[in-house]
Write a structure and sequence with these properties.
The complex is a heterodimer of chains A (about 110) and B (about 120). Chain A has about 110 residues and is an all-beta fold. Chain A has strands spanning about 5, 10-15, 20-25, 30-40, 45-50, 55-60, 60-65, 70-75, 85-95, 100, 105-110. In chain A, the strands form two sheets. In chain A, strands 2, 4, 5, 9, 10 and 11 form a six-stranded mixed β-sheet that branches. Chain A has a five-stranded antiparallel β-sheet with strand order 1-3-8-7-6, with no helix packed on it. In chain A, a hairpin with a 7-residue loop joins strand 9 (about 85-95) and strand 10. In chain B, about 35% of the residues are buried. In chain B, the strands form two sheets. In chain B, strands 2, 4, 5, 6, 9, 10 and 11 form a seven-stranded mixed β-sheet that branches. Chain B has a four-stranded antiparallel β-sheet with strand order 1-3-8-7, with no helix packed on it. The termini of chain B are far apart. By secondary structure, chain B is mainly β. Chain B contains no helices and eleven strands. Classes of the chains: A mainly beta (about 110), B mainly beta (about 120). The interface of A and B includes residues 32, 44, 91 and 93 of A.
Chain lengths: ~110, ~120
């Protein structure tokens, strides 16, 4: 049973516009959420994280929003750049647990 | 050199063969993990190790075994490969002293095909 879900397998955005990637989860006990970015033929690389006690975390062009009541998080990329084209995975973890639960990924294409 | 190195990068093997995937890291992290990625399923944990003497099963460990030869080395074995083990395999590391804030560091992956 998928505890972390990314319902959009793909997203296309024009360069310079905002990209919004969404993620839903089912386990209300998750207390940390992460986003990873993956290019072809490379492993996932850490992008940004957020604790469950926060509702927003920002790092440059990347902002993650967390809505605990809706069990929903989103990653905003502003402005989007062609180099942002990749597969984005959201992941969640319980502190003290031993497993990152990953979503199925969203392929972002930024069109020049 | 990559912080987390996986060998081989690609491998085709026959059903029933034993195969080993290797992972080594230079990050000095104490924790190591093996994940597999399948289309439409994201990444799923196979095994993890919190130190050399600590090995634990993940959510999909059946058909796999692991060995933590040293803090820096963690290998994954398929004792008798079957076609549904065709997947992209990732090794990852983390530092228990840093917590989860920075997530895991992943290798570049091994693409395994079982024919």
């Amino acid at each position: 049973d998928q505890q972390v879900k990314q319902n959009s397998p793909s997203l296309s955005v024009q360069e310079g516009r905002i990209s919004i990637l969404n993620c839903d989860y089912t386990n209300s006990m998750f207390d940390y959420f992460l986003w990873y970015k993956k290019y072809p033929a490379e492993g996932p690389t850490f992008l940004i994280s957020i604790s469950s006690i926060k509702d927003k975390n920002e790092d440059g062009r990347f902002t993650v929003f967390l809505n605990k009541s809706a069990k929903h998080l989103s990653l905003h990329i502003v402005p989007s750049q062609p180099g942002d084209s990749a597969v984005y995975f959201c992941a969640a973890i319980l502190t003290g647990a031993n497993n990152l639960f990953f979503g199925t990924g969203t392929r972002l294409t930024v069109i020049p | 050199d990559a912080d987390v190195t996986q060998t081989p990068r690609n491998r085709i093997t026959k059903t029933g063969k034993r195969i080993m995937l290797e992972c080594s890291q230079t990050k000095g992290h104490d924790r190591m993990y093996w994940y597999r990625q399948d289309p439409g399923l994201g990444l799923r944990l196979i095994y993890y190790s919190f130190d050399v003497k600590d090995i634990n099963k993940g959510e999909i460990s059946d058909g796999y075994s692991v060995s933590r030869q040293a803090q820096a080395k963690f290998s994954l074995s398929l004792e008798s490969a079957i076609p549904n083990q065709t997947a992209l395999y990732f090794c990852a590391t983390s530092d228990s002293r840093q917590g989860i804030v920075r997530g895991y560091t992943f290798g570049s992956g091994t693409r395994l095909t079982v024919v």
